[in-house]
Amino acid sequence: MSPNAEIICVGTELLLGEILNTNSQFLGQELARLGIPHYYQTVVGDNLVRLQQAIAIACQRSSLIIFTGGLGPTPDDLTTDAIATFFQAPLVERPEIIADIQQKFAHSPHALSANNRKQALLPQGADILPNETGSAPGLIWEPRPGLTLLIFPGVPSEMQDMWCKTVVPYLKKQGWGDAQIYSRVLRFFGIPESNLAEKVAPVFDLIDPTVAPYAIDGEARLRISTRAASEAEAAAIIAPIEQQIRQQCGVDCYGADADTLASVVGQRLLERQETIAVAESCTGGGIGQRLTAIPGSSGYFVGSLVAYANNIKVDLLGVKSKTLDEAGSVSAAVAEQMAEGVRSQFGSAWGLSTTGIAGPGGGTPEKPVGLVYVGLAGPQGPPQSWSYQINALPGRDWIRKISTSRALDVLRRQLL
Amino acid sequence: MSPNAEIICVGTELLLGEILNTNSQFLGQELARLGIPHYYQTVVGDNLVRLQQAIAIACQRSSLIIFTGGLGPTPDDLTTDAIATFFQAPLVERPEIIADIQQKFAHSPHALSANNRKQALLPQGADILPNETGSAPGLIWEPRPGLTLLIFPGVPSEMQDMWCKTVVPYLKKQGWGDAQIYSRVLRFFGIPESNLAEKVAPVFDLIDPTVAPYAIDGEARLRISTRAASEAEAAAIIAPIEQQIRQQCGVDCYGADADTLASVVGQRLLERQETIAVAESCTGGGIGQRLTAIPGSSGYFVGSLVAYANNIKVDLLGVKSKTLDEAGSVSAAVAEQMAEGVRSQFGSAWGLSTTGIAGPGGGTPEKPVGLVYVGLAGPQGPPQSWSYQINALPGRDWIRKISTSRALDVLRRQLL
C-alpha cells in the first residue's frame, strides 16, 4: 500500500450537528501542504463498537490514521479504549501525565477533576503526544509495522498546537512529505461558478498542473495544483496557467490563496495611503469585523459606525430626516448620505455604507427582503450607490454575509 | 438491518480543507430532529473508484445514504456517474431538466453553459429531486429494495432548500422519523468543560434521558436527549433533569438550544425595555454583528461605534487624551470612558466596550497579546470594567471571538 492518510473524527456531537467539523478542515489543509495523500474522512460517534469498525476499515486502506476527539475527561470519551482494544494492547497509567495535569491545574481557579486521571491511561507501547495548552495528552503509536496512529483531543486549538509543535517534525523525520502538493487558489467575486468554468474550460483538461473549480460563500474559486519537490519548482508550473486565467477573467479575479476581499481592499488602501470608515445598517458590524480581521488593519481602517436606529443615522451621520421620510431608510439616497456622513465624521479618505433588508421581516413588494444598497463616498466626486437583490432564501445570515462581500467588492473595484 | 442513515460528502475541496463541511452539520441536525439514527459520515474526493468504494461500504451498514456534492456542471462532478455505475443503471437524459435549466437562465445576465447539460443525465429509475434555487437537480432513488439514496448538490443553500421542501415530506411519507430523538442543549459560559462535568457527574449515568458534555467556541455544553413519540412526552422526561442541572450551575448556565449570549442579552433588554450601544476596539465590530444577527434586534440595539484609531476614541467617544497617554489605549480607564462615551453619544441605557490586544503584534510584557478590557456603563452608578487574559495561542480570530463573548457575558450578568 502506498503511504496515505485518513482522518477519523470521533464525537456524537459531530453526528448530531452540534458543532462544525473544523478539525477535518485544518488536517486536510496540513496533509495537502505536506503532500501526504489523503482520500477519506470519517465521522463516528462515541460508541465503542462503531469506533472499532471505523478503525477496521481505515486500517485496510490507509497507513496513517489521524484521530481527533474522544480523549477528554468525561465517561463518553472512548477513543483510547477503542484503539487499545482493537489492537489488543493493555492500558497502562503514565505517572508523568498525572504530574503534568497536576502542574497545569496548580494555578487554575478550578480544581483537578477526578475525571482527568482517566487521561493518564495509554496503550502499552504508545508515545505521549504532548498537549501544552490543555489537559488531555494525545498519542503517537505504531501498533504494527507500516501503520501509524496519531490521536488528538477534539479541541481545535489544542489539536492544532500539538500538530504544529510535535507532529509535523515527527512526520518529516519519518519520511512523509518529500514531494509536497502545492496548490494555488484563485478567488473570484461577481461571476457564477458555471460561467467561470465555461470561460476557462480548456484548463480543466490539463494534466499538470490540474485545475478544479468550486464555489463557496458566494465566491467562485479555481484551484491549480501540482506535486513538486520545492515551492520554486511548483511556482514555475503553476504561474503560466494562473497568468492565462487572470488575463481571461480580468477584474472578476480578486486574489489568490489567503487573500480575502477585505485583505485585498486593505492592501490597496495601504498602497494608496488612504483610509476608510464604514457606516453599516443591515450588515450590523460585519464590514468592520472583516476589515479588522486583517492584522495591521489599523494602518487604514479608522473606524465604523453601526447606525441601526434611524435617529443615529440623522444625529451621528448627518442623514437628512426628509430623505428618510421620502425615500425610506433602505434607499440609494440614504446609502449615499451615510457614506458621505461617515467619511466626514471620521475624517477618512473613503466612506462605505450599507442599508438593506436582512429579514426575515420588514420586506414589502417594492423593497423585498434581500434588497441592499451600498454607498461609497471618496476623495473625488459625489457619493455613488449600487443596489443588489440578494437571494433571500438562505436567510438573514446569508443576506448579511453577501451584502458585506458586495460592499467590500464595490470598494475594491473603485480602488483599482 | 434496522433503518439508519449515513452521509457521504463528495469533493476534493473538502479533503484539501478548502471549505468547511457545513452540509454534514445541517444534515446531522435534521436527522437527529427526525429521529433517524445516523452513525457515520464519510468525505471522499472527486475520484470515481474511491467514491464507489465508499458507496460499497455504506450499502453494507446503512439503509438511507445521503450524498452531497459532485452534481455540479464541471467535469470533476462524478457523483451521478459513480452511483449509476455501482448499481449498473444506464444514464438517461431528462428533457424536463434541460427545460428547467433553460428557464432559470432566461433572466440571467449569464448564458446557459454547455456544461449544464451534463446535469440532465440521471440513472434510469431515479426520481428528480427539484432544485428551485440552483441549476443542478438532485435525485431520489431506490436502486434495490430497502436502500434509499438521496443525492444533493454541494451548495449548502440549495441542499437545505431541497431538504426542507421535498425530502422531509418524502421521508415522513416513507415512515422514517416516527419516534424522534429530542435533545435539549444547555449552554454555559465561564466554567471549563471538565469542571462542569465534575459538578454534575451523576447525570452522566442516567439511561433516559442521556446527558453528554462537550465544549465549543469557549463554551461548555450539556446535551440532554431522549427518544419520544411527541415533543410533550420528551419535555416531561427532559425537564426535571434540566431543572436539576440549572439549580446546580446557577448563573453559569446562560441558556438552552438556539439561545446565544447575544439572544439572551437581547431578551433581557426587551423585558427591561432598555437599549444598548457598543464601542468596540479590538473586537472590530463583532459585538454589533452578533447582537444584530438576532431578528428584531432593532428593538434594543441602537448602534455601535468601532473606534479603531485613537483620535476617534477622543473625538467621537469623549475618551480623554490624558488617559490614553497615561494608561494606554488598552486599559481599564479607557474601557470605562468608551462605555460611558458611547452610552452618552447614542443615548442608550447601556454602553458596552472592548479594548485589547488581538495580536499577532502589539503585545508587551506588561500588556501581552490576549489582554482585553471590557467596560460597561449603565443607568445607575459609575462605569465599571473587567480584564481578561485570553489564551493567545489560537491566534487573532480566537482572541476576538472570546473577547466578544466575554463582553456579552459581562452585560448578561449585569442584566440578571
TrEMBL record, chains A, B:
Residues 6-173 form the MoaB/Mog domain. SUPFAM superfamilies: CinA-like, Molybdenum cofactor biosynthesis proteins. Pfam families: CinA, CinA_KH, MoCF_biosynth. Belongs to the CinA family. This is CinA-like protein. It comes from Acaryochloris thomasi RCC1774. The gene is cinA_1.
